[in-house]
Amino acid sequence: MLDCSNLMMEQCSYPSIFIYGHRATGKSHVMHTLLKELELPYATVSCVECVSVGLLFEQVLLSLFGSDSASLLSRSPSLSDFVRVYKQLCVQASAKQTRYIVLDRAELLRNMETNLLPAFLRLQELDNVTVILLSEIVWDKFRPNTGCFEPLLLHFPDYSKGELQQILSEDSHPSYSPELYSAFINILLGVFYSVCRDLRELRHLAALNFSKFVEPLEQVKEGDTHKLWRNIEPHLKKAMQTVYLREVSSVQWEQQLQMEEKEAGAVRGLSAHAHVELPYYSKFLLIAAYLASYNPARTDKRFFLKHHGKIKKTNFLKKHEKTSNHLLGPKPFPLDRLLAIFYSVVDSRVAPTASVFSQISSLVTLQLLNQVGHDDQLDAPKYKCAVSLDFILAISRTVSFDMVKYLYDFL
Ligand SMILES: Nc1ncnc2c1ncn2[C@@H]1O[C@H](COP(=O)(O)OP(=O)(O)OP(=O)(O)O)[C@@H](O)[C@H]1O
Ligand SMILES: [Mg+2]
User: Which controlled-vocabulary keywords does the entry list (predicted)?
Assistant: First the structure.
């Protein structure tokens, strides 16, 4: 944090800064807080939200030059349109202070227009501006092979246990003393720190378990942490089994909270799978995706072809291949395999009329499916199923699909 603020206080600004570090190490939070506190002119753009470069350009201009500026861009602007408009606006409003452009989840820039990343790294040629790229990925995997200006590299290390304790304790509950909350965080970290250091996960776990922690307070005094500990221990142990296996990731949970704040409680929590309402065919798509992620591709014939002829059971069950696919985690699969399995599992039901593709992209947006391997644009897109076994079993029950019968691991 100090490093960053020193950088910003310096007279001569860097053309670009590349900030990298694991998830939830405060990259976005620290940058945002600094720029706001120092009252510097800045634009932050999340590359995830920019489905087109046009949107990205528009957001940069809007934040830096106000609401009229974006109208100077053409309908689907190219990089050179952006540069032209940016230049024009700089002449009109020359920068007294360095302007900052923060591009969050910057690894996605690599999949946009080829020249985009090199151009942003040289933007200072136009204006007194610093471009800050935030990413989980190291710069070496980032650098375009055509070469480009090198940014200043800055690493955000993982938070230490003490730092986590401090940050998490700030969330204290209004009806309880900060000391009690801090004691609870201490217990929580004692249990989870060895398996989970992700601030988002830990925050979620804290929110989930605090009410259980204070339950005995009617009979027990606040200071009697031993009794409180005895009461909470079994709950934390149970929660331990499901760290990272939750139906909803902490990122979704965070977004959900933000949305709930915005809509003043109009939307209810996504946190229990009972509340995830998917369209009928999307459920089958998700089931198909789960099967594609956890069954070896060579077994598809056996499961999904009605008349697959004789495939020797011994061959089929290569059980020396003992490792459970569930332990190995979901494997990526191509779209055509997903569709083949999908049509096979819905077959007896009415054929879908709704657009299958738009439902797939909705599942990706909901983070129930992940798109992978986007680096390789020559290849067709690949996906991975991102839901837990419990979740998919619950979904398949709602459409009376006997999931276990189709899973290789459970044969
Ligand atoms: N120093 C901090 N003080 C208070 N809250 C923090 C701090 N650092 C991170 N957080 C909170 O933790 C969560 C994750 O932080 P942040 O989004 O900044 O991580 P990130 O490094 O950008 O992660 P990602 O790579 O996933 O984008 C946010 O809700 C943020 O508000
Ligand atoms: Mg971030």
Answer: ATP-binding, DNA replication, Nucleotide-binding, Nucleus
Residue reference for tokens 């070496």: 140
Model pLDDT for residues 100-136, shown as the tens digit of each residue: 999 999 988 888 888 899 999 999 998 889 999 999 9
Q: Please tell me the distance from the alpha carbon of residue 44 to that of residue 28, in angstroms, as a whole number.
A: 9
Ligand 2 (ion): which residues have CB within 5 A? 28
Domain boundary among 137, 155, 173: 155
> What's residue 2's pLDDT?
58
11 dihedral zone (left: phi>0; alpha: psi -120 to 50; beta): alpha
If asked whether residues 286 and 401 sit together in one domain, one would say yes
Q: Which of 2, 18, 22, 29 to mutate to test the pocket of ligand 1 (most atoms within 8 A of CB)?
A: 29
Q: How many domains does the chain have?
A: 3
Rounded distance from Cα 62 to ligand 1 centre (Å)? 25
Q: Of the bound ligands, which one is closest to the alpha carbon of residue 19?
A: 1
* Residue owning the nearest CA to atom 23 of ligand 1: 24
- Does this model's pTM top 0.85? no
| Ligand 1 atom 24 nearest Cα | 23
- Nearest Cα to 114, choosing from 167, 202, 53? 53
Confidence of residue 49 (pLDDT cuts 50, 70, 90): confident
| 135 and 179 inside one domain | no
Domain closes at, from 275, 301, 327: 275
Nearest in space to 341 (alpha carbons), one of 389, 303, 312, 380? 303
Among 161, 160, 52, CA closest to 113: 52
Pocket of ligand 1 (CB under 6 A): 21, 23-29, 136, 167, 199-200, 254
Give me the domain span that covers residue 54.
2-155
Residue 200 Cα to ligand 2 midpoint, Å, equals 11
Residues in the chain: 411
